[in-house]
Amino acid sequence: MLLTDAISIVVDPHDHTSERSGNLAFDGGIVASRATPLAGDEVLDVSGCVVTPGLINAHHHLLQTAFRTLPGTRGVPMRDWLPAMASAYAAAGMDASLSAVASAAGIGESLLSGVTTVADHHLNWPHGAPVEDHVAIAASVADAASRLGARLAFVRGSARDDPEEAALSATAIVQHLLPAERSAGIRPDGMLQVAVGPAGVHSDPEATFRLLREVAMTHGLRRRTQANEQVDTAIALERYGRRPLDLLSEWGWLEPGVTIAHLCDVTDAEIKQVAAAGVTATHAPGCDVPMGWGIAPVRRLLEAGIAVGLGTSGGGSNDAGHLLADARLALQVSGLVGTQLTARQALAMATVGSAQGLGRSDLGVLTPGAAADACVWDVSGVADAGVADPVAGLIWASPGRRPRHVIVAGRVVVRDYTLVSADENDLVSNLRLRMR
Asked: What is the distance between the alpha carbons of residues 343 and 230, in angstroms, rounded to a whole number?
């Protein structure tokens, strides 16, 4: 495939000097070093467009796509939000049929917004059900991603699960979803990754963290959790007399291979603690800001040397899976807690920063040899009129912007603003039918 005549190609979002105009080639699902056509190339004219690496949503809860704008869940303390959401899950019935339609809709929304990789922190499981039911839920999410053409990092999460059950379930999911020849919890084709992660110290005890750490070490998985939102800090202090990050350190979860989402309420000493541990972070302003749960001091995290990715979190708190819109929000609110981010820093968080948290050096960039995941953004319309810097304009202008084309592993999965492998109306109808 050859993309021709781009206004700008963002080769490495961390490196402003890498941006160039012209052509971009993909061969065999990776970025090629050539810029000229070969026989058999599909040629996409991307004149009037900016090309970026595919966006990476480092923190989503795809199940919550089925539970947006529920009464009692908007702008409320987390102590009230958590039981309201749990009640909705129970009423719907947590099974593979629900996760299938919710994840399909969420992944479809993600692709249409330019997200080529979704990290789905799945926290809700049918208690007391056989492990086969847990495997079926995980498989339904993986199948939805495969059908639509997205990359998936499936995180076997836990929220008040029995620790032994969570560990057995995580092991069974790894064995079912990944072949024996996997590396670092990633399928050889790079399209599927498995990780583990308790919801946080506010919901899961030390035993869960330790047992899921053992699973991760046994199978070479990355780990992800959430910390230092308002309820997390408050409950940790009430229950243990300690702050969350001190507990995570004691329980073996402040070390390389761990990513922590949110980190709204962190001290300078805690930022140094996270940086020294080699932990990465995920910012989720589209959840934390409108719910009043805090703003992570992203600039201070970056300046401390912490890799920071970007996530939407789920529909139960964000209501949208539009990562570029959340990059814009991150940019806008960053000045409230320190020095304001730049547009390119926000874009870097949504691409290479998120990739670093997944341990994926092949994602988030368009350097030769990287995965051929790209978004084509048409900047020729009135929403970009007068924009002096089209790359910065991706973040600052047009909050609801969608990509014209989305490419994953060298294959077009969104063409002219339309999903290639699914009918968007069918995704909506299937979810509505299941939620009746």
From this structure: 28
